[in-house]
Amino acid sequence: MATYECQDCEQVLPSKRELKLHMKVHRKGHKKERRFTCDVCSKDFSQQSGLQQHQRTHTNEKPYLCDYCGRTFAQIGNLRTHSLQHTQEAPFVCETCGARFRNGGNLKKHKQVHANAYTCGECSKTFKDADRLRGHQLLHGNTKPFACDSCDKAFVSKSKLLAHSRVHTKEKPYACDLCDKTFTQKSAVKQHRKLHANEKPFLCHACGKSFAQKINLQNHVTIHAKETNLSCDTCKARFQNRTDLDAHEQSHTRVQPVQLDESFLDAHAIESFHEVDVLDQCSMSHSMEEQFPGSLYNDELERLMQEALFKSELWTAVRDGLDQAV
């Protein structure tokens, strides 16, 4: 737990600072060298009690027993802190509001509530002081009181103005600790370090390619924006990106040879099947008028017509082959 124990007298203190102040009591009035030495690790102590407590870390001895649950401890200070769980005592008191806690760690967490006492009325975000709250409130009012002397730009905070001014001064105070490359802003260093770590968190949803920096992804997606007129060489169907086109073209390459039996030797049956297929495409085009408004309907209709043409040519080739076989 977040408590600090004096090795000389076993007193438990709620913070490291109070422990340091307490230790001065033992050091005051004498400057003798520590004469109690651990024969295992050679660590020195000013008092024998401190040495005895330390030696238990080597022997794993736990002589202090909890009367409530039987748990044992190597240090009496740890037993005292543990016992508070059974007695419900809360000796750690908040000086601001009087709230009580059983250990110093919980008191420290509680004090953060008072540390962020300034609350924004717009979004309820809290701040440690009034100046930070006022700077934050400028974001809601869209006020930009900090103007750049070198250009017409203005900013909501002094820190943002300072970061912008480096564009004019060419100052680059942030350096990469791996390659010594410098940057004008701290955020740029963080992005740059991803190159060394080979991290690529920015993913293109069109093709699956990933990038280390967002700007590289933005430049990449313009490639897909230019691919809106990609078409299939086999059936002339059109697609908006290369990934969808490649997936579609696989549908043509997956066609397997068909083992024809006597029932397929009837060319009339094949022709009838072709006519039904074309009629299905036609009836589908009428229902599409309700599903695809405007130009989307025309694009989809053209794609289906090209697909129907491809199937028609395919069945014609099969029929001619069967005629020759007969």
From TrEMBL:
Residues 4-31, 36-63, 64-91, 92-119, 118-145, 146-173, 174-201, 202-229, 230-257 form the C2H2-type domain. The keyword Zinc-finger applies. PROSITE patterns: ZINC_FINGER_C2H2_1 (PS00028), ZINC_FINGER_C2H2_2 (PS50157). One of its GO terms (cellular component) is nucleus. Its main location: nucleus. One of its GO terms (molecular function) is DNA-binding transcription factor activity, RNA polymerase II-specific. Coiled coil: none annotated. Keywords: DNA-binding, Metal-binding, Nucleus, Repeat, Transcription, Transcription regulation, Zinc, Zinc-finger. The keyword Ribosomal protein does not apply. It is found in: Nucleus. It comes from the Eukaryota. InterPro entries: Snail/Krueppel_Znf, Znf_C2H2_sf, Znf_C2H2_type. Belongs to the krueppel C2H2-type zinc-finger protein family. This is C2H2-type domain-containing protein.
